[in-house]
Amino acid sequence: MSDRTRLTRKPERRTDDPAVLHRLLDEARIAHVGCVRDGSPVVLPMAMGRDEDRLLLHGSTGAGMFLAARSGIEVSVAVTHLDGLVFARSAFDHSMNYRSAVLFGVATPVAPGEKEHALKVVTEHLIPGRWDEVRSPTPKELAATTVLEVPLAEVSVKVRAAGPGDEPGDGEDHSVWAGVVPLRTVADDPIPSPITGSSTALPRSVRALL
Amino acid sequence: MSDRTRLTRKPERRTDDPAVLHRLLDEARIAHVGCVRDGSPVVLPMAMGRDEDRLLLHGSTGAGMFLAARSGIEVSVAVTHLDGLVFARSAFDHSMNYRSAVLFGVATPVAPGEKEHALKVVTEHLIPGRWDEVRSPTPKELAATTVLEVPLAEVSVKVRAAGPGDEPGDGEDHSVWAGVVPLRTVADDPIPSPITGSSTALPRSVRALL
After folding, report:
1. Cα B23 to the center of its chain, rounded Å
2. For the structural domain made of A12-207, what CATH number should be given?
3. How high is the ipTM of this complex?
4. Domain-by-domain residue ranges, chain A?
5. DSSP string of A63-96?
6. Which pLDDT belongs to residue A62?
7. DSSP class per residue in chain B
8. Considering chain A, what percentage of its residues have pLDDT values greater than 90?
9. Going by C-beta distance under 8 Å and a sequence separation of 6 or more, which residues neighbour residue B172?
10. Which end of chain B is less packed: N or C, by CB atoms within 10 Å?
11. Is B196 an interface residue toward A (CB < 8 Å)?
12. Averaged confidence pLDDT in chain A
């Protein structure tokens, strides 16, 4: 049983531990980014990476949020892992184990001179080891790339990593099964593209995911 | 090879097919909900369920967004599945396969008389079959429950389900492996709570997740 799945009495907590935040971000591939457009909220999923103390967001340069960010745009970014389903004896007491970070800040495009570095960080974040297996971006490709950065300054981290809050004398029917079903993301068999030769070996970056 | 993983030439598309939207929502457990608070965006993860043509959101009654929603609050809700990582021959052409719904609307609390129904829908959405295995909510528990609803009226659905956009004559180095690594969420071995008897059989709802 790992630390994450050990059942404790303290089900939910905020933490200021940067190691928890960094691990949570480093294990995530998608961030949900909210901004205000014409007074209304908009939330979009984006590819992400972490570069030290800033979060990098990668999306289509044509997307409205990326255009609006040219001069800086206020965002809230949520990154969430659903780590398990919590089964209790009553419907009401069911819960989820999760790790979540909610970041507030101003998103700005990374400087042109930093774009290649930022693209490398995001690529390596999503697929460790891939950068050196493939062709580097051309100047034209970099010009078509926008990566936004948000400083990891104002961030709220919450973790629930516990079983149901049951006690022997809580009046519930303890013949009903209660506990946690952990959830995890796994990779299935790789599917080569039609023009990948059948004798082409899986690269190290793919094998590391399996 | 399933429809989802078949490699096609049309990598990205918007769809108005309600069946795609419904399946995407029905397979999701977490929604990312954005609202505007004091002029700034806030995005929070919430448990979710779908009840016909409305999305139900479940969270702590103490959370600011739930308090603000008492008289209706404008939200944007994103629900995203990351279905695979797309490996190309160049860093720039890497991508992700995903299904995403972005909903816009006004969130309001479900009526008091509908709360038990809404809690059942969310519970059954997250853990099919669980409602009938456990104790129903008491009036006090229902009073402490807030479920928000957002009509599935204004929603944008995007699906990318394709391989990398490679062509024999695209100038790339085709000795580099390209293709898709599908991703999937799985359940690990259930962890019983300390007071679940060791002879208590796993209920049907848990077994269905394994």
Report:
1. 10
2. 2.30.110.10
3. 0.93
4. 12-207
5. SHHHHHGGG-EEEEEEEEEEEEEEE-SBSTT-EE
6. 57
7. --TTT---S--EEEE--HHHHHHHHHT--EEEEEEEETTEEEEEEEEEEEETTEEEEEE-TTSHHHHHGGG-EEEEEEEEEEEEEEE-SBSTT-EEEEEEEEEEEEEEEPPGGGHHHHHHHHHHHHSTT-GGGSBPPPHHHHHT-EEEEEES-EEEEEEE-------TTSSS-TTS--EEEEEEEEE---EE-TTS-TTPPPPHHHHTT-
8. 82
9. A135, B88, B89, B90, B166
10. N
11. yes
12. 91
Query: Residue B112: which of B75, B134, B139 has the closest Cα?
Result: B139
CB contact under 8 A, A176 and B43: no
Contact with chain A for residue B33, Cβ under 8 A: yes
CB-CB: which of A34, A179, A189 is closest to B191?
A179
Please give the average per-residue pLDDT across A169-187, as a whole number: 95
| 8-state DSSP, A136 | P
Give, in words, the CATH class of B12-166+177-183: mainly beta
pLDDT in tens, A86-139: 999 999 999 999 999 999 999 999 999 999 999 999 999 999 999 999 999 999
Average pLDDT over residues B41-66: 88
Q: What is the pLDDT of residue A65?
A: 76
**Taking chain A, what is the end-to-end CA distance rounded to the nearest angstrom?**
22
B135 has a chain A CB within 8 A of its CB:
yes
* Beta-carbon contacts below 8 Å between A and B: 297
Looking at residue B11, what is its pLDDT?
Answer: 62
pLDDT at A121: 98
Contact A209 B181 (CB under 8 A): yes
Residue of A nearest to B44 (CA): A78
Q: Report the alpha-carbon distance of residue A122 to residue A58 in Å, rounded.
A: 8
Q: How many angstroms separate the CA of residue B73 from the nearest CA in chain A?
A: 10
Examine the pLDDT at A10 and tell me if it is beyond 70: no
